[in-house]
Amino acid sequence: MLQYNGTISPFMIRKTEEVSMNIATSPHRHNYYTLLWSFNNAGRHVVDSHVYPIYPKTIWFIAPGEVHCIEPPQPQGIMIQFIPEFFPAKSVNGEFLSRLELFRSHGRPLILSDDGAAALMPHLVAMTDAFLSSSPFRMDLIEAHLKLFLLECNSRYPLTACTVTDSKNQHPAIATFKEMVTLHLREWHKVDQYAEAMCLSPHYLSELFRQTIGQSPKTYLSSQLIAEAKRMALFSELSLKEIGFHLGFDDSSHFSRFFKQQTGISFQHFRHTIVK
Fold first, then answer.
1. Could you write out the DSSP letters of every residue in 82-96?
2. Does an H or E element contain 68, and which?
3. Which helix (H) or strand (E) holds 269?
4. pLDDT per residue over 41-73, tens digit each?
5. Model confidence over 99-108: pLDDT tens digits?
6. How many CA atoms lie within 13 A of 37 on its CB side?
7. pTM, whole model, 2 decimals?
């Protein structure tokens, strides 16, 4: 939960220089959205298993649950954090955010041109002024400018073949399935369980996935399990057995086989070669 001056707040904006490096350098995750806009050359930003050098005019978009940390030196810039559920108008909500490419990027940053930075700066200033004000409409102003800020970023976000394909997946049933996977990943490992909860047949759900995004719901579910397993392998000291149990695998050998089947390498090989 975000807090400002001892009060719960749906939104926070501050200079990155104000962030404790003791916290920032340790891998961590949040239950809120984070934007990091760097203004200079600095260290590196690690998001899940991806490592990005920190350059000027670069913005990262970190979704809830993603693990990240900053390797020194500390960047100069702005950090924005927000929880959409508490905005007054709720125009910035989960449905809106899921339609953006930004938070499906696994940390891939937006590198701004001079024109792009100039277009975003008025919204950044307006959000900062409203956040520091005592106006009864401060959160309404922040919500309006945050939405415009995100839309401007999204319009400038580079499209890839994967992004173009992924942009087709906005069918409500697919969005609901993905939300449920986020909530029940450690409990439900079968598509049938999600289909039943959605009052759909597994066949219909599979056909919907195949026709819209060219993959099966089982493939998506497996990819989310592997992503979470990699995060825990990279950013924790938990054993293979402990990680498997955390993800809902009662048998460590089953989890080990699943990991190798999905990634092509063993869990131990991944941890020993990727983790420095």
1. E-GGG-SS--SSHHH
2. strand 68-71
3. helix 267-274
4. 999 998 887 889 999 999 999 999 888 999 999
5. 888 987 777 8
6. 17
7. 0.75
